[in-house]
Amino acid sequence: MSSPTERAERGKAARAEVPRSSHAAWEPPAGRDPLRVLADQAASRVPELVPIRHGRMLVSPFTFFRGSAAVMAADLAPTPRSGIKVQLCGDAHLANFGGFASPDRELVFDINDFDETLPGPWEWDVKRLAASVEIAGRDLGYKEAARRGAVLATLRSYREAMRGFAPLRTLDLWYTRLDAADILASVGERVDRQARTEFAKRIEKARSKDSLRAFAKLTAMVDGQPRIVSDPPLVMAIEELVPGAEAGAIEDEVRQLLRSYRTSLQSDRRELLDAFRYGHLARRIVGVGSVGTRAWVVLLLGRDHQDPLFLQVKEAQASVLEPYAAKPRQRNHGQRVVEGQRLMQAASDTLLGWLRATGLDGQQRDHYVRQLWDWKVSADLETMRPSVMAAYGHLCGWTLARGHARSGDRIAIAAYLGSGDAFDRAVAEFAVAYADQNERDHRALSEAAAAGTLEARSDV
Questions:
Q1: Looking at CB atoms within 10 Å, which of 64, 148, 373, 419 has the fewest?
Q2: Beta-bridge partner residues of 354
Q3: Residue 229 burial by CB count (10 A; 0-12/13-18/19+): exposed, middle or buried?
Q4: At what angle do helices 122-139 and 422-451 cross, to 10 degrees?
């Protein structure tokens, strides 16, 4: 263990080797082919769902960006890096932050997607987040000054938060988090009364978004038993995916898999899970980038039909960062996701766990498990005003820094960043250049779909 002084010197020394201004650079790597990257990803996904993924990515440059984490991972690999590693989210864009219930029933704000998590250079997450702010601002029609202001607010928040975390005692850092009251205190003066009122309404609505509400919305009684209602192609009950006898066999296997998943939980949470019995199963399409991976909703029942629990069982494939960073130490990608999430989040889902299952095609795949709805709330990025975007970017920047500080050398990173805005300005320039590239990539996808060389369709 190096001393704080030695760690700070390491960060300062990295500036000489990798100047902060160098992070502004963006040049497409030789042989770059984003459509080939998407095609390679499609090979491991459910074939009939891949056109839906492409259709969702076509909606706008921002939805393309959400679905192209693998493209950006390849693009970031040759960019400058300070040599300081952290646990990466791997897909740190604006839509992958939000609120949810902590185990002590407080609504907290944090990163909420870890499919791509892996140790790697902290700069990669920061650049993806900054680019997402620039791209979202363009989609919303912001003027250049407003976009730059939001990007710089995000980067300044990351830098100042990291510098604030550097001198903290380790336990104080570990317990640091943003709850609803903290959010209002943090950004209350940055937004107007209308934004504060809208925030309060979304928080109140989130508190009612739980398994009981999901039960009312997603199920119907069939022969006296609750069943998840199909809504093709978004939701498909198991009996509509496979023949009757086979569906029954799969449901029997799910019961066995729940016992396997149980072993990944803490002992007290195993007791909690044991209080529920299997009810029903359905496949569900989620997100943009995740479309085509196998995702299931499992209905469990406790005391009676008014005591439901919905679990989401989602396939975990290899991280898009893996070709450019270290191989994961975990043998199960579901475990990789869960352990990365527990490390970066201040509070994680009570029932977060993992399993390995055989799919409908007979192939074994890794999965992670969490509650489907537990006070989930996300920002309305489609109507966000520039001042609110800057405030929201501030929250995301702070949150990403906290996740990085828990897993990496916060003192060295803080020293590298320094008190000035050299890094902020450089990455803001990168965000503009990468947003231009993202627009070209989105246009290439549109042209391929129009030419019929790539299939895309809407799911609505």
A1: 419
A2: 368
A3: middle
A4: 60
Name the phi and psi angles at 259, rounded to 5: -70, -35
Residue 145 identity (one-letter amino acid)? A
Q: Tokens for 397, please give them.
A: 């920047």
CB 411 within 8 A of CB 162: no
Closest by Cα among 65, 61, 71, 78 to 320: 71
- Burial readout 386-401 (b: 16 or more C-beta within 10 A, e: otherwise): bbbbbbbbbbbbbbbb
**Cα torsion through 416, 24, 157, 415, rounded to 10:** 0
Q: Could you tell me if 84 and 412 are in contact, meaning their C-beta atoms sit under 8 angstroms apart?
A: yes
Helical spans, DSSP H, in 291-421: 333-344, 386-407, 410-417
Tokens 């937004």 locate to: 191
Least Cα distance to 66 among 121, 118, 115 occurs for: 115
Please say whether the dihedral angle defined by the alpha carbons of residues 112, 407, 342 and 107, taken in this order, is positive or negative.
negative
Residue 420 in tokens: 């000035």
The pLDDT of 296-320, averaged and rounded, is 94
Q: How far apart are CA 445 and CA 170, in angstroms?
A: 46
Do 250 and 358 form a contact (C-beta atoms < 8 A)?
no
**Three-class secondary structure of residue 138 per DSSP:** helix
Question: For 413-448, what is each residue's pLDDT tens digit?
Answer: 999 999 999 999 999 999 999 999 999 999 999 999
Environment class of 125 (CB within 10 Å of its CB; exposed 0-12, middle 13-18, buried 19+):
buried
- What backbone torsions phi and psi does residue 117 show, to the nearest 5 degrees? -60, 140
Q: Give the contacts of 46 (CB within 8 A, at least 6 positions apart).
A: 292, 293, 294
| Strand-pair partners of 111 | 97
Q: How many residues does the chain have?
A: 460
| CA separation for the pair 187, 149 (Å, rounded) | 15
Tell me how far apart the alpha carbons of residues 284 and 294 are, in angstroms, rounded to a whole number: 8
User: Can you read off the two tokens belonging to residue 459?
Assistant: 């799911």
Q: How far apart are CA 221 and CA 344, in angstroms?
A: 40
pLDDT of residue 2 exceeding 70, the answer is yes
Q: Are 142 and 62 in contact (CB under 8 A)?
A: no
| Domain residue ranges in the chain | 4-206+378-451, 211-371
- What pLDDT digit, counting tens, does each position of 67-122 carry? 999 999 999 999 999 999 999 999 999 999 999 988 988 899 999 999 999 999 99
Q: What tokens appear for 275 in the block?
A: 């209080």
Cα separation of 142 and 435, whole Å?
14
Whole-number Å distance between alpha carbons of 140 and 374 = 29
**Pair of tokens at residue 219:** 């199920």
